[in-house]
Amino acid sequence: MKNLRTVSIFVALLALTGITAVAQNRGLDDVRWNLTEVNNRSVVNSSAFIEFDRVSGRFTGNGGCNQMFGSVRVNGSRIVFSKVGLTKRMCKLLPGSVPENIVERAIESTFRYQIHDRLMTFYDRRGRAVIQFRRDVVRPERVGLEGRKWMLETIGTRRSLVAVKDAFEVFDEQKSSAGGNSGCNVYGGSYTERNGTLSITEIMSTMRACEEGDRMDVERSLLIGLRSSNRYEIRDGRLYLYRGANLLLTFRGERK
Predict the structure, then answer these.
(1) pLDDT at res. 11
(2) What 8-state DSSP symbol labels residue 147?
(3) Which domains occur in the chain, in start order?
(4) Pairing between strand 246-254 and 41-42?
(5) CA distances, 226 to each of 42, 122, 153, 220, 223 (Å)
(6) Which residues pair with 177 in a beta bridge?
(7) CA 104 to chain centre
(8) Of the given ranges (9-23, 48-62, 65-79, 196-210), which has the lowest mean pLDDT?
(9) Distances (CA, A) of 143 to 78, 114, 239
(10) Rounded to 5 degrees, what angle do the CA atoms 30, 104, 117 make?
């Protein structure tokens, strides 16, 4: 009888642990987690954050300046990050923030996590708290590729580029089409996207020659960037197209 009672208690504990793990896992997705602490050092002036999509096994975010991305595997309280990457934009470190390489190393060293109230803490294999995030009170509006008219703002990392008048990109989910205007010619093609990956193919354009300024150079760079991109991110009202870790194009979202 005593053995039966012991087994029953053990099974109940396992069930409770499983329920707790499932509830905690559900708390990861569809939430922006803002950085608050790294290696017991408070972070008070940083735009660093992390978001999860466990269906695709991916995470995205920001290291404080550059876009951050990689793979994530969650099993109960265990969490393992791999292939962590950052884009290559040069940034000035602000007082109260923390270098991005420290954020990256802390995430890579994570072995398990815990969510308590609005705080999510990552621990390494030795049980030390390495990084902490706080849940956003208000989740930013999610805007998909199809939700905006995307105005060309930047090619590569050339921040001095003046947005080209009338250069834009729009996506039509029903037709699986992507197209717009380069600021000189009308263009169009097909696209497929899934969990942040993107492929734009079969791009064709009209053949008008534009002599004003550097419009032809901009058009050439725009079309090459569209054809070369293999993933995207939408953040703070902007669409970023990448090939791997390399930023190719940046667009500013406007209502259609």
Answers:
(1) 40
(2) G
(3) 28-135 (2.40.128.270), 145-254 (2.40.128.270)
(4) unpaired
(5) 40, 37, 14, 10, 5
(6) 172, 190
(7) 14
(8) 9-23
(9) 31, 29, 10
(10) 40
* Choice between 90 and 66, residue whose per-residue pLDDT is larger: 66
Closest by CA position to 192, among listed 141, 252, 146: 146
Q: Are strands 149-155 and 197-205 parallel, antiparallel or unpaired?
A: unpaired
Say how many residues make up the chain. 256
DSSP 146: G
- CA-CA distance, 117 to 111, in Å (whole number)? 20
Least Cα distance to 163 among 89, 236, 213 occurs for 213
Residue pLDDT, tens place only, 118-136:
999 999 999 999 999 999 8
| Spatial contact of 241 and 230, defined as CB atoms under 8 Å apart | no
CB atoms closer than 10 angstroms to residue 5: 9
Q: 53-63 pLDDT, tens per residue? A: 877 788 989 89
Residue with tokens 């896992």: 25
Check if the beta carbon of residue 154 is closer than 8 Å to that of residue 249.
yes
Please give the Cα distance from 14 to 17 (Å, whole number): 5
pLDDT range class, residue 95, cuts 50, 70, 90: confident
Environment class of residue 101 by beta-carbon count within 10 Å: exposed (0-12), middle (13-18) or buried (19+)?
Answer: exposed
Q: And the tokens for 198?
A: 């993107």
- Residue 115's contacts (CB-CB under 8 Å, 6 or more residues apart) are 24, 27, 28, 121
Dihedral, CA of residue 55, residue 232, residue 247 and residue 98, to nearest 10: -50
Say what the pTM is.
Answer: 0.53
